[in-house]
Amino acid sequence: MRFFNTSAAVLALALSNSCSALKATILADTNRDGKVDVKGDTDIKGKAEWTSERGALILANIGDTDRRCSKKLPDNDSASEVNEAFLDKCNDATGNVQRNAKYLAPLRTLPIAKLSYSAKGSIHVTDDAAAENIRVFVKEGNDWTYVAANHTFTAQELQDGLELGVDARDVRRPTWDGKAQVHFTVQDGAQKAEDSVALRVAPVMTHHHLQLAERVFSTDSDYTGAQTTFVSDLKENVAAAGIDEPVFLFSNGDIWIQDFFEPGYTSIPGPDGPIVLRVMIRSAQAGRFSGRDIFRQLRNDKVGAVQHPGDGDTLDSAGNLETVPPYTLNGKSYPAGRIIQGQWDGRKPLIHEFL
């Protein structure tokens, strides 16, 4: 006589179900080595939480490829003292078209086997501020297609694994710290699986004085005749220093070039080294229309521009913004240097909260 072991049968069924349970996995460059590890586990630990040591970085894709936006800006002669916010409203990240894919940070989903034909997947971003500022794209052939929150991926796409890219519409601001959570959801019949990965927009950094100069700026505005001589000498010395880029001359009548903008940059790790976008930072002096020229004249596919609202006085000139070289103090390291600014009677420059 045979006895059927009910407990063993239930255990076997449970193991069978757990082995076939639906699993969704989305990965980013969490360990910041410039690539997404889809074969090992180096990007798995702590991927859903962003910290100073781990967590993927992405770029604000705010250049101006083909100078599409820059060409539309009014010249300073027709400027009136209005809200300067329009300067930020057009760049490569405007809308949902991918214009500069070299600044996309990679995301990957692992292939999911044994899905039914009706299985579907989706990607969405949280929280509200992040959802407004983060763009996700999927690679389709040689093109990048924008992934809206209501976009549906097919069973075949999920089985193959998704090649995704992500960028941001804007840099970190006092109103948004640049953090975002990207969620990957898969539904197959009654089964549902979810996963997420934490990202953060890379900060805008300023250059310290031990970094090598690659471009020099001056003005052709000359009220005494001395500037013409100065520019001639400057060009000779720039060439002698081995700087390939010619001296860039502004023609806006503002002779204090260092005061209306500060050159900066933002970067993320890449497979062949850092991926860098230069970012020109306008002084927080909305009434100083020469600052518009960094948006009009300097942006291209490798250079973006930002501004912080406010119409400050001389305290807010960019000449009051310098960066000391890297150093270590009391066991704390500052590998990118550290910004130094002056203040008057306890009043800080307006742009201080942006930096």
How would you portray this structure in words?
There is one protein chain. The chain is of the alpha+beta class and 355 residues long. 14% of the residues lie in helices and 27% in strands. The chain is built from six helices and 19 strands. The strands form six sheets. It has a five-stranded antiparallel β-sheet with strand order 1-3-7-5-6. It has a four-stranded mixed β-sheet with strand order 2-9-8-4. Strand 5 (134-140) and strand 6 form a beta hairpin. The longest helix is centred in the middle third of the chain and has 15 residues, at 226-240. It starts with 5 loop residues before the first helix and ends in a 15-residue tail after the last strand. The model is unreliable at 1-19 (pLDDT under 50).
Q: Could you provide a short overview of the structure?
A:
Residues 193-344 form the Protein-arginine deiminase C-terminal domain. By secondary structure, the protein is of the alpha+beta class. It contains 6 helices and 19 strands.
